[in-house]
Write a structure and sequence with these properties.
single chain; globular
């Protein structure tokens, strides 16, 4: 299925709220991504996502509509050669290979725009869909941390996946630049 990664715009607010307001999405996100997801939350998110190019958070556009988000968050201080990857996708598009392809594009974008050597993601141990997307995109499981997350009154495992610049370059031919 065809998609593009592009900067967010305030015209995306309706689509953002419609697709983000899903408890099946928020259950795998930090507590900052709350359910119900409101228009006020969406406006704050779009304001944040559209600051200071190169943009760190992009919309996953399918058919001219924002259907999810993917972001890369460079770290600071002694972690400055690392960046964290985060993402979500509207439920109707799960299991179609979109997220794996979006992850690959965002990793390429991250290595092209920031002086980083490693990109990591931290899915919940119960989020097997996210784990599979990362593995298919070339990420390697580095650690399983038992019961380190606390969400909705429950302790959850955190899995840490990562890809290094050299390994990504060897296994992924360049795509169209973002």
């Amino acid at each position: 299925m065809h998609f593009t990664l592009r900067p967010w715009a305030f015209d995306d607010l309706e689509s953002l709220v419609r697709h983000a307001d899903n408890p099946k999405i928020s259950r795998f996100m930090s507590d900052k991504f709350i359910h119900p997801y409101t228009a006020d939350q969406g406006r704050r998110f779009i304001s944040f996502a559209t600051q200071n190019p190169p943009y760190r958070i992009l919309a996953i556009d399918i058919g001219g509509e924002a259907m999810g988000a993917i972001g890369i968050h460079p770290q600071e201080d002694i972690q400055r050669k690392n960046a964290e990857l985060g993402y979500w996708l509207a439920e109707p598009f799960w299991g179609k290979g979109i997220m794996t392809a979006a992850i690959r594009q965002m990793v390429e974008y991250g290595f092209a725009h920031w002086d980083i050597e490693r990109i990591f993601a931290r899915p919940f141990g119960t989020n097997t869909g996210s784990q599979r997307a990362l593995q298919k995109a070339g990420f390697v499981l580095e650690a399983r941390l038992e019961k380190t997350l606390y969400k909705d009154g429950e302790y959850l495992d955190e899995w840490i996946y990562a890809v290094r610049r050299s390994a990504f370059a060897q296994s992924n031919p360049p795509t169209q630049p973002l």
